[in-house]
């Protein structure tokens, strides 16, 4: 029996996502900022991928994909990423502007 696919593929070849983040600071600068901040300020600016996922109601894997694709900025400390909250806000703002 031959089955013909009649629906469009789930993933298109053209991405509907906004372009990757272009942070003012390079990753090396972001690490410098991370290390220079006192622990309390660091906790106010950088969050785990789980915290970001919970805050925005998305899957943790989505946040990890955004980091891998360069859509948001993060610092890798050990085996975990510490996500730069301003970069997430900027990315979501670009998404909202693109929909308008």
Helix fraction by DSSP (H/I, runs of at least 4): 40-55%
The biggest sheet amounts to: 3 strands, antiparallel
Strand order of the largest sheet: 1-3-2
What is the overall pLDDT average? 81
Sheet-strand content, in percent, reads: 5-15%
- From the N-terminal CA to the C-terminal CA, the straight-line distance is 45 Å
Shape: globular
- What structural class do helix, strand and pairing data support? alpha+beta
What does the radius of gyration come to? Answer: 17 Å
Number of strands: 3
What is the H-and-E element order?
HHEHHEEH
Indicate the low-confidence ranges by residue numbers: 1-15
Helices, by number, come to 5
Describe the structure.
The chain is 49% helix and 12% strand. The chain is built from 5 helices and 3 strands; from the N terminus they run ααβααββα. The protein has a 3-stranded antiparallel sheet. Strand 2 (74-77) and strand 3 form a beta hairpin. Helix 3 (49-56) crosses helix 4 (60-68). It is globular and about 40 Å long.
